[in-house]
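Lay summary. Proteins are chains of building blocks that fold into shapes, and those shapes determine what they do. In this project we predict the shape from the chain. Here is one chain we studied, written as its sequence of building blocks.
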Amino acid sequence: MEKIKNALKSVRVRLFVTLSFVILLIILFLILVNNFVFGQFYIYSKTKSLKSVYQVVNNYFREEENIDLEIQLERIAINNNFDILIKNDQNVNIYTSNKDFFSTLGQMNEMTSRFNNNSGEMVEKGEKFSIKKIKDNKNGITYILLSATLDNGYLLYIRIPITSIQESVKISNNFLYLMAGFTILISAVIVSYVARKFGDPISELNDIAKKMSNLDFSHKYRITDADDEINNLGKSINVMSDKLEKTIQQLRSTNIELEKDIEEKSKIDEMRKSFISDVSHELKTPIALIQGYSEGLLENVNSDEESRKFYAEVILDETNKMDRLVKQLLELMKLEYGKREFEDQRFNLVELQKEVVRKSQVMLEEKEVEVKFKTPTEINVFADDFYIEQVISNYMTNAIKHVKEIKGEKYIQIENVVNIEKNKVRVKVFNTGENIAEDDMARIWNRFYKVDESRNRENGGTGIGLSFVKAVMNNYENGYGAINHDNGVEFYLELDLSI
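And here is the predicted shape, written in a compact code that computers can read:
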């Protein structure tokens, strides 16, 4: 049912129905005219002809020239399909074009009597003539009969049958019915062609408009050489489609930039809140220490020089720790929120590792721990050597702090495992010691999280070393993590090889 409704709404069907309706109206009009007007027009035309012949015949009898009257009358009768009868003033037939026309005097008198009374339908009446439409009951034929008196006193009778015009009207109507059928069939073909020519482009434009409403501007109207309204409309829609596409692309681009700005602002706000929260939390203890020792100096709690020097050293040490903590936290924030740009370059990873060990030599000697290298002499990677050095330093510092003797062994091992297929190298820093609890394995990468809360402030660190590693590796989108072994813990990270 829905398809039928849609079909009835189509331009092609409506055009066909409209044209067929117009054709039927025209044919109906012609039939009405044929039935009601054509007969009257025929009678009017023949009446005019009868009067004209009457004048011609009257002139023949008035002219003094010698003419062959019978030949002239016969010509008039044949040319006009008239039956002509002329009687003299003695009521004697002097001419008849049809022997059946008042063939006997009795018939003539009867007809004359019928004509002179009120029988028949009067068509027109003059001073010396009258024209009636009468029906002969004997033969059932209807005639138009003119009865006139000539100037010389003769009687003139002219008749013409009008039954033929009725038959002509009937034949004409049948012909019109037949033509109506043929016209509708022909119009169906023509309308189909015209509807396709005009309807298909309109349907195409409609489909393009629907796609445009769904923000699909990939389809364009096929422009032809025709300079018509549909072609011009197609050009306009193509232009509008291009402009809308450009405008929407600009809006999308602007929206993306706006979203980035909003996201950037959100990140900055989040970073600011996080920074304030972390700093506020971590600076409570050093600020309290500084405040306490400062008050002790002011109140001369210890008057000797050595005590005052100790108080001042504690204040300076806590101040340095606060400065280092704030700088490290700011750097970590920039890394976590993508505000730090790396200066990547090619460098030898093994040399960098040896430099980190050299810088940690004092701590290693204090812990009496040995560092083992299981690595080639040269491995070139592509990264920012400054940040990678800090990452490995954090792993090294963490290993030194937690290294313990296990089963008679106490050492730190650095190993590099190269994977040519993945173009990666995995750096492993292992220390003998206690394992990390499974619950703590994921938390150790969070800021300020410390597995051993009992450690003193001097050896405990800031608690952001592993967070720093996590931030750097996330920026490089490389792996990192920690693995427990039977005799210790391994921390690892991955870097891109430079070939």
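What the prediction tells us: Residues 104-109, 111-118, 453-460 have pLDDT under 50 and may be disordered.
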